[in-house]
Write a structure and sequence with these properties.
50% of the residues lie in helices and 12% in strands. The chain has 248 residues and is α/β, with parallel strands linked by helices. A six-stranded mixed sheet has the order 2-1-3-4-6-5, with helices on both faces. Helix 1 packs antiparallel against helix 2.
C-alpha cells in the first residue's frame, strides 16, 4: 500500500471504530500489518485506541477528522492537528467541508473569517490550493487574541502560515468572502464592523446559522439592510449564504 494512502486508511479505521464494525477493522488491520512499517502500525494502534475511547465519549476532533468527504490531502493535514484543538462549539465537519468546496469555487482574493480554530485550517488549505506564483488569496481571521495566537501556531506547524495575513485589504473591484465560523456572541459582535467594510454584493457565509447566536445575528443584519440571505442549506448545523446589501 503506498504511503500516500495511509491518511485515507486511518480515516477509514476511525469510521469503522465509530460504527463498532469490528470484523472490518480486523481485516483492515491485517492488511496494514502486512504492508505497512512499524511507524504506520504504531499510528494505527494509537488511532484505534483513541477512536475506541471516542466511541464511548465522542470527541469533536475525531468526528471532524473522520468525516467522509475530506479530500486525501485535507484528511492528512487534519490527522496532524494537536490533541483537543477542535472544540465542541467549532464549525462542524459537514459545514466545513461545504465551505472548503465553496471557497474553491468562489476563488476569492481574500477570505475574512469571524472565528478561528479548525475552520481556519480548512480555509487556509483552500487558500493554499488557490495560490499561484504571485501569492494568491489570503485568510484574515478575527477572534479572541488567545484563540488567534493558538490557531496561528497550529497553522505554522502545518505549513500553512503563509496563507494568513493580519490586516484585511483588497484591490478595487475585488469582493472578499466573509465566513462566520464562530457561534460565540462575543466574536460575532465583530461581524457588523467587518461587514460594513465590504463592497456591496460581497458574499457572506454563515457556517452554523441554526445556532442561536448566528440566527440572531442574521436576523439583525437583514433588518438593518446589511445583508440579504439568498440560500439556506441543510448542512451541519445549517449554512446560510447572503450578499452584502447597500445599507450602512
Amino acid at each position: 500500500m503506498p504511503s500516500s494512502q495511509w491518511p485515507q486508511q486511518a480515516s477509514e479505521i476511525a469510521r469503522l471504530v465509530w460504527a463498532g464494525r469490528t470484523r472490518e477493522i480486523g481485516a483492515l488491520e491485517a492488511v496494514l500489518k502486512a504492508r505497512q512499517g512499524a511507524r504506520a502500525l504504531t499510528q494505527m494502534t494509537s488511532l484505534l485506541a483513541h477512536a475506541a475511547r471516542a466511541r464511548r465519549a465522542p470527541h469533536p476532533q475525531l468526528t471532524f477528522q473522520s468525516h467522509a468527504d475530506w479530500p486525501e490531502d485535507v484528511a492528512a493535514k487534519l490527522l496532524e492537528l494537536p490533541p483537543h484543538f477542535v472544540r465542541p462549539n467549532d464549525l462542524d465537519a459537514e459545514a466545513a467541508a461545504w465551505i472548503f468546496a465553496h471557497t474553491l469555487d468562489a476563488r476569492p482574493a481574500l477570505v475574512l473569517e469571524i472565528g478561528a480554530g479548525v475552520s481556519s485550517v480548512i480555509l487556509a488549505l483552500a487558500m493554499a490550493r488557490l495560490a499561484d506564483p504571485l501569492g494568491g488569496p489570503k485568510l484574515c481571521s478575527f477572534a479572541s487574541e488567545e484563540r488567534i495566537d493558538r490557531t496561528d501556531q497550529v497553522l505554522a506547524q502545518l505549513g500553512l502560515g503563509e496563507q494568513v495575513v493580519t490586516e484585511s485589504s483588497w484591490q478595487p473591484g475585488q469582493r472578499p468572502l466573509l465566513v462566520l465560523s464562530s457561534s460565540d456572541e462575543t466574536e460575532l459582535a465583530l461581524a457588523p464592523e467587518r461587514l460594513r467594510e465590504l463592497p456591496a454584493g460581497s458574499e457572506v457565509v454563515f457556517g452554523s446559522v441554526l445556532s442561536p447566536a448566528q440566527r440572531k445575528l442574521l436576523q439583525m443584519l437583514e433588518r438593518a439592510g446589511l445583508v440579504e440571505a439568498t440560500e439556506y442549506l441543510a448542512v451541519g448545523r445549517g449554512v446560510a449564504v447572503a450578499l452584502r446589501g447597500r445599507a450602512g
